[in-house]
Amino acid sequence: MKYIQNVFLVGYMLIVGLFFICGIGLIGLAGIETWSALNPGTEFAVRDRFELILECIGLLTIAVASLELGQTVLEEEVQRSVNISSPTRVRRFLSRFLIVVVVSLSIECLIGVFQFMHSKPEYLPHSAAVGLAAAAILATWGLFIRNNVEAEKLEPHSMHEVQAEDEELEA
Prior knowledge:
Layout: H1 2-38, H2 46-79, H3 87-116, H4 124-154, H5 156-170
């Protein structure tokens, strides 16, 4: 059993490393795009520069999501070796993940609206669908947290274990 746990640990470490590499790569690509958008020596129209900067924001949003997901996997699966069985741990893990998803979808919705408002208005419903998906995830996440609080009251020792673990890792 210990061998299988070590295999999973190595797998999680590889995932964390790849999330980090992808995040850094996206930051680098966003930097290159930003330079080409703002470089006064290039012959771009203002609208083209605007669209390049919006693409940079999209790249940076995905980079943040990649880095945050890597950090979540590192902290929850590697450092804590979490066995997601208590309501507190489930809420915490899902909340960290869903924060990234909701914020990323919301930013992508805004980018889509800004991009398509003047050039391709027929694609605005696609951006609206992304915004609605973010709102639906946020609403169901709120319901989950509300119901999860009731479950946590049934197992108060789990909350104390998680808080003790937090203090131990922060020290």
